[in-house]
């Protein structure tokens, strides 16, 4: 199975392209039962996915030239390749590319599989953004599983959205690392009445279900992995001057203005605010008398 995106993998945690397209690029020896796993994985990526059923002879861990060629041809950064052989049967290879070169790959062997058709429950609506849960201490301590957790996050996280309503939180993908295996389960969230404002939550398995075992890995060097984390300047949000937000998200703006002369401020013209003619003449006389007394005081001082 082969994933492609509209953009390259700019960063492992941030700047992940929102739209992903998936195609089924599989080994000619890939069994028909394993083809169902590809179609099931494709179903998880709808509607941002396209399925290809062409058979291709590829050995990603021996020679990744073909993958890099298709990556550049289709402008892709994620792929999922299905293979099967006598030595390592029933494999799914999750991989990512950076700058049209393989960044890392994880070969997972399928020991147990349950498709969407095998679970006779109501499914989530197409295109639902899933919630990802990773259980197990190994996802935080083992270096290979830390990278695998990061890759699975890139595959299934869905588009970045500013907010999600409560009713939209209806799909959970649960990954558990225990006893040398990785268990993948898919659940539908049911919101039940609880007698209070917060609903009671129940989980219902809807499929698919995988029991994986980690077989082979290809991890990027520390320098290349660090380079893949860098976010392009064009994607970095520009800081706006004189704009701030409070704890509740309210937006505040600061305006800088010159000092105003309120004496020349134009007000509404009303008859009650007009000055009388006699008062204006009296005011002029008082001003003239004050100037005369000031001149006399100056003359006496001299």
Oligomeric organization of the protein chains: single chain
What is the averaged pLDDT score?
77
- What is the helix tally? 6
| Run of helices and strands | EEEHHEEEEHHEEEEHEEH
The largest β sheet comes out as: 9 strands, mixed
- Roughly how many Å apart are the termini? 106 Å
Instruction: Tell me the β content.
Output: 25-35%
- Work out the number of β strands: 13
Inertia-based shape: elongated
Name the structural class. alpha+beta
Indicate the low-confidence ranges by residue numbers: 4-25, 296-302
CA gyration radius, whole angstroms: 34 Å
Helix content: 10-25%
Question: Please, could you describe this protein's structure?
Answer:
This protein is of the alpha+beta class. Helices cover 25% and strands 28% of the residues. It contains six helices and 13 strands. The strands form three sheets. Strands 3, 4, 5, 6, 7, 8, 9, 10 and 11 form a nine-stranded mixed beta sheet that branches. A two-stranded antiparallel sheet has the order 1-2. A two-stranded antiparallel ribbon has the order 12-13. Strand 9 and strand 10 form a beta hairpin. The radius of gyration is 34 Å and the shape is elongated. It starts with a strand and ends with a helix.
